[in-house]
Amino acid sequence: MAADVTSLPVQYLCTMHAVLAPPVVIPGGPHGTRVLVTVTGGTVRGPRINGDVLAGGGDWVTIRSNGIAQLDVRLTIRTDDDAIVYMQYCGILGADRIARVAPLFQTGDERYAWLNDVQAIGMGVPATGEVTYEVYALG
After folding, report:
1. Which pLDDT does position 2 carry in this prediction?
2. Where in the sequence is the domain holding 46, given as residue range(s)?
3. Cα–Cα dist 129/62, whole Å
4. Mean pLDDT along residues 130-138
5. Number of structural domains, the chain?
6. What is the pTM of this model?
7. Residue 116 forms part of a structural domain
8. Is the pLDDT of residue 136 over 80?
9. Does residue 1 sit within a domain?
10. What is the 3-state secondary structure (H, E, C) of the chain?
11. What CATH number should be reported for the domain holding residue 61?
């Protein structure tokens, strides 16, 4: 029997709140305007993962000629029980100012090894100096 791919089964993973430094804008590049946004901190809260977003990650945004932003984010999470988790995602920030992203995770900590096999999806709303995402694991 074929798998049912007519719907997206998801499970709530966490809410991620990131605090952002002021952006550095590089206008007029060959692919659009580049915006570099450094992450200065934040939090991750969920039923199976809780911790802090460490300073030093960031988003290498490309703003296309139609105003849509293509996201390219890399950041590091230190869990409350001291595991280190790398989180990377790409996505689109649409004209509606909602970011739609597809996170992947990497860790060597056995307690969080399950994250290595998770394809997540998320939706976020940026504000001045911050962004908050609701992140879900695809089932």
Report:
1. 63
2. 21-138
3. 18
4. 98
5. 1
6. 0.93
7. yes
8. yes
9. no
10. CCCCCCCCCEEEEEEEEEEECCCEEEEEECCEEEEEEEEEEEEEECCCCEEEECCCCEEEEEECCCCCEEEEEEEEEEECCCCEEEEEEEEEECCCCCEEEEEEEECCCHHHHHHHHCCEEEEEEEECCEEEEEEEEEC
11. 2.40.160.20
